[in-house]
Each structure stands twice: as C-alpha cells, then as structure tokens.
C-alpha cells in the first residue's frame, strides 16, 4: 500500500497541493495509524496532515475522491455477470489467464489486475494527452493482451462451432476491457497531468510577446504575473528581515559585557536601515504598448508588500495620474478603465513629460526609481529632452523599458537613442520574463546585503 500512498501524494502535487518531504512522512505515519479500512477517517486524517489552506482543502477533496474512486468494471457483476465456463471451454482457453478472467473473473479481480498492470507501466508518469494511447497499450500488454489476441486468432482458424463462439466471446471481452482501461487512463490523466498542460502553456506564454497575448489568455497571464510578484515579494521580505539586525557592534558589545570580564553574553548590533523602494512608473498606453502596460502595472501593484510608495502615470496624447484608480479597484478592473480613459490615442512624449513636470515632478527624489514603459515614438513632435534630463537628475535611477527590439530603436519617428542618454538602464521588455528580470534588478538596488 506504500506505492498507493506515494501515487496519491504525487497526484496532490499535480493539483498544486504543496507536500514537503516532512509532510509526506507525516502522511505515512497517519496511514499507519488509521489504516485504509475507514474511508472517511482516512480522508479527514490525511487532509489535516497535508492541506494547509482553504484552497488546498478543496483541491485535496477533489483529488481524494478522484484517486480513490473505483468506477472501472463497476457494471461487471451487474450487467456482465461472469459466465459459467464449461469443461470444453476450459480446454480452449487453458493457460490463458486474461481469457479466463474475461469470461469468469469478478469486478474485484479485474480491477486489481488492471491496477497492478498500471503500476508496473508507471501510469503515474503520464503528463500529456498524447500519452493516453501509449499507457493504455502498456497496461493491456501487461495484463496479457498479446497472448489473448493470439488465442483469438488461433480460435478463428480452428474448426468447430465451439471455437468460433469462444473467439466471439473473447472479442467482446477484449472490447470491454479496452473501454474500461481507457476510462481508467482518462482518470489518471486528470489526476497526474492536469497541471502539466497548464505549466506547458504558462511556459509558452512567459516567452510570448506581450502584444501577441490573446484576450482568452489574460486571466492565465494575470495568475502568472501575481505568482512572479509573490515570489519576488517573499524573497525581498526575507532579505529585509535577515539584514535588519545589521552587523555586530564590537565596541558597544565589549562595553556592555565588561561586567562579565569581556565575555560577550549580550551582543549588540549595528542597525542597518533597509529602505523600501519608491517607484514612479510612467506608461505609454497607446495601441502599440497598451498590452505591456497592463502587465507592468499588474506586476508592480502586486508587489505592495515590499514597495513603500508607488505612483503610476499613464499617457498617450497627454498624461494623467492613475494611482487612485489602481488603489481603489482591482488591477484587472482598473486597467481597462485606464485604457478607456487615456489609451489608444496618438502618442506625444513631449506633452506627456510636460504634464508630468507641471504636476508631479516634486514626487522625484534621490530615493525614487522611475520606470518608463514606451516605444519612444513621438510622432515627430518635440520629445522634450530637457524634461527627460530633469527626471534623470532628480531621481535615483531611470529605467526605460521598450517593447520593440533594439534594432528598431532610432528608426522612423523613434527618439529612443536620444532618450537612452538620460537613462541608467534601457532595455527591450517584450515578455513577462523580461518584466520579472527588470523588477528583480530594481529590488536588488534597494535590498543589498
């Protein structure tokens, strides 16, 4: 039964229920204590040992019911009751265990034989829908299908009514067995491979140009962005707590412990002040950049745990502050409202920087990182390099993210090479992987150990 429990833990992990090695040991101890006899007791005990959140409890329940369901061969005893095997029939199928099981075996015997064959075939390793046929055939071969097919072929060639009738009965049994094994494989696919397809899709989307993301993938992308943001937030929260103590203050420690002959029973630390990032983000929401703006804003507003101040500005023909919209509404709802309000218009970078200088330049200081997202194409209007210089001089750093490939910079109406002069970092940012790297670099500039 150890293999059964290990497969169940693997299925839980596939359904995004986190199970650590220590928790796996707890699960084995739990099963040793309660056993498998009482299904409800087993389910409740394992749930207490393994599920840590409400979402995980729901996923645990679904996984448990699916894993321990035994739906295959359910109608074996009801609709397809085992046939009586006459002595003459026994002679025809002698030394063919699968044939004997198909004709006279019970539901339990059939199910046990199939599950044993499935374990031998490694069905828990199924990952893709294209593997269903492969594992179906592996299970059937381990149950003795090849011998059964040879037997049917021999019976068809043999003379006599009994042999012909037996071949027909075995063919019916073979079709029945195929259907039940396919049903079993479908259930195993749901158990072990449900998340594999999602992971494959997520890996593809992470490398896909943001402007090419289809609307039907927005929800999946939002989950991916939040997951990335949570990972970064956890990393830098941990680093901030780790460095908060600072380094040992030797002089104060020795002075404090003079009463103990200088033995440092009490240690005093130099306090290291770790500043949380202050970020101003200015995003172009014209049609060519709106998709990237959506995910950058979502990423930044998902990092609220480690960002002290975040002010967001959006522009196309002119610039407005959108911080209040993003703070009062869910980002998924706020971004479409922002796009409706200011997006998809002719881009004017000079006018946008002038609006920022008039209303919000005082927001910048030597602790502020400015992130600008845009393609630098100002439609042949004045790019206002003087204001770009002011932004550079007043801030800690200026990072420009351009969704266009670098060879396109400076072509046509692009002013990117001129803007790049006043940026500490200017790089192509066309996927959410690029976004993650950029935000990670910003965090590192504040949280140095």
Summarize the structure.
With 449 residues, the chain is an alpha/beta fold. Helices cover 57% and strands 8% of the residues. It has a six-stranded mixed beta sheet, with helices on both faces. A two-stranded antiparallel ribbon has the order 1-2.
Give a quick set of tags describing it.
449 residues; alpha/beta; 3 domains; 6-stranded mixed sheet; Rossmann fold
What does this structure look like?
The protein is an alpha/beta fold. It has three domains: about 70 residues; about 110 residues; about 190 residues, von Willebrand factor, type A domain (Rossmann fold). The chain contains 20 helices and eight strands. The strands form two sheets. A six-stranded mixed beta sheet has the order 5-4-3-6-7-8, sandwiched between helices. The chain starts with a helix and ends with a helix.
Would you count the extended β strands for me? Answer: 8
Radius of gyration computed on alpha carbons:
33 Å
Per the CATH scheme, the topology name of the largest domain is Rossmann fold
CATH structural architecture of the largest domain: 3-Layer(aba) Sandwich
Could you give a short account of the major beta sheet? 6 strands, mixed
Number of helices: 20
Distance between the termini: 49 Å
- Global geometry: elongated
The helicity comes to: 55-70%
* SSE class: alpha/beta
Mean pLDDT: 82
- CATH class category label of the largest domain: Alpha Beta
Strand order of the largest sheet: 5-4-3-6-7-8
Low-confidence stretches: none
Q: Order of helices and strands, N to C?
A: HHHHHHHHHHHHEHEEHEEHHHEHEHEH
Number of domains: 3
**What is the CATH superfamily of the largest domain?**
von Willebrand factor, type A domain
């Amino acid at each position: 039964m150890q293999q059964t429990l290990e497969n169940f833990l693997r299925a839980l992990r596939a359904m995004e229920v986190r199970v650590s090695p220590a928790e796996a040991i707890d699960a084995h101890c739990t099963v040793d204590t309660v056993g498998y006899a009482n299904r409800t007791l087993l389910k409740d005990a394992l749930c207490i040992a393994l599920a840590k959140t409400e979402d995980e409890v729901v996923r645990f329940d679904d996984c448990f019911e699916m894993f321990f369901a035994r739906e295959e061969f359910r109608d074996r005893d009801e609709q397809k009751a085992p046939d009586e095997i006459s002595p003459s029939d026994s002679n025809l199928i002698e030394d063919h265990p699968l044939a004997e099981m198909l004709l006279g075996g019970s539901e339990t015997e059939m199910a046990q034989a199939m599950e044993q064959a499935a374990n031998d075939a490694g069905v828990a390793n199924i990952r893709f829908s294209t593997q269903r046929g492969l594992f179906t055939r592996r299970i059937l071969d381990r149950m003795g299908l090849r011998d059964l097919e040879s037997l049917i072929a021999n019976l068809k060639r043999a003379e006599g009514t009994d042999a012909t009738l037996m071949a027909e009965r075995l063919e019916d049994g073979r079709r029945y067995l195929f259907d039940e094994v396919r049903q079993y494989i479908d259930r195993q696919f749901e158990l072990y491979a449900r998340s594999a397809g999602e992971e494959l899709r997520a890996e593809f989307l992470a490398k896909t140009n943001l402007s090419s993301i289809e609307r039907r993938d927005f929800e999946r992308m939002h989950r991916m962005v939040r997951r990335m943001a949570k990972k970064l937030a956890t990393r830098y929260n941990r680093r901030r707590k780790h460095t908060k103590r600072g380094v040992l203050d030797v002089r104060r420690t020795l002075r404090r412990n003079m009463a103990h002959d200088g033995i440092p029973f009490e240690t005093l630390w130099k306090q290291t002040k770790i500043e949380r990032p202050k970020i101003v983000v200015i995003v172009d929401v014209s049609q060519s950049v709106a998709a990237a703006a959506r995910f950058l804003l979502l990423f930044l507003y998902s990092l609220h745990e480690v960002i002290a101040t975040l002010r967001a500005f959006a522009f196309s023909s002119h610039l407005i502050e959108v911080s209040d919209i993003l703070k009062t509404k869910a980002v998924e709802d706020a971004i479409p409202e922002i796009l409706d309000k200011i997006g998809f218009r002719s881009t004017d970078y000079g006018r946008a920087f002038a609006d920022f200088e008039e209303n919000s330049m005082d927001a910048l200081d030597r602790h502020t990182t400015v992130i600008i997202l845009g393609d630098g194409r100002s439609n042949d209007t004045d790019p206002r390099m003087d204001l770009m210089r002011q932004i550079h001089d007043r801030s800690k750093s200026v990072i420009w993210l351009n969704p266009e490939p670098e060879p396109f910079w400076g072509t046509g109406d692009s002013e990117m090479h001129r803007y790049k002069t006043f940026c500490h970092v200017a790089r192509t940012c066309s996927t959410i992987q690029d976004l993650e790297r950029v935000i990670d670099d910003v965090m590192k500039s504040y949280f140095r150990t």
